[in-house]
């Protein structure tokens, strides 16, 4: 193995999910990699365009933004991105831009899918990452909806109240009878 390939192997073997691959499959992955240099502020993935690679950041930094331009994630050395399109229809679901001069290792989709098929840990890594992304997106959407939801639409009944001069005992009894935690 050449010193360059040994260095590439050592780098991948130090980062999940490649660290769990057996040596033979790690070697196959390395032989299939493309190396790409992307200058600062240049696009890597464009929303709606085909993506045929899992991208692994070797050096530099990448920012991924969604359809409305909101930040989805930032990636640095050892991080992988671009997998949502590889798990789906092959079309990028976000923009990815180099925010520093960036060196990428690009794993072709065929190799990505073969590794997923052969290694449950490799597949699970990306499945969990995708599930986390989807949960986070749902949480953001839910939070946004809550910010514009009028309070009156959240109320299921009139508030439970007592007179200002009522005793603590009366307050406790009223709360217990009404099944509420505050008045």
Structure write-up:
- It is built from 7 helices and 8 strands, in the order ααββββββαββαααα.
- It is an alpha+beta fold.
- A hairpin with a 5-residue loop joins strand 4 (62-65) and strand 5 (71-75).
- Helix 4 packs across helix 5 (120-148).
- 19% of the residues are buried.
Observed structural traits:
four-stranded antiparallel sheet, 183 residues, alpha+beta, 20% strand
How is the secondary structure organized here?
Elements: H1 3-13, H2 23-32, E1 34-38, E2 43-45, E3 53-59, E4 62-65, E5 71-75, E6 80-81, H3 83-87, E7 95-98, E8 102-108, H4 109-118, H5 120-148, H6 151-154, H7 168-178
Antiparallel strand pairs: 1-8, 2-7, 3-6, 3-8, 4-5, 4-7
Kindly summarize this structure in a few lines.
This protein is of the alpha+beta class. The chain has seven helices and eight strands, in the order ααββββββαββαααα.
Approximately how much helix is present in the residues?
40-55%
Sequence of secondary-structure elements: HHEEEEEEHEEHHHH
User: What is the strand tally?
Assistant: 8
Measured between the Cα atoms of the first and last residue, the distance is 73 Å
Model regions low in confidence, pLDDT < 50 over at least 5 residues = none
| Shape label | elongated
How much of the residues is beta strand, in percent?
A: 15-25%
Mean pLDDT: 89
Arrangement of strands in the largest sheet: 1-8-3-6
- Radius of gyration equals 25 Å
Main beta sheet strand tally, sense and closure: 4 strands, antiparallel
> Tally the helices: what do you get?
7
The helix/strand class is alpha+beta
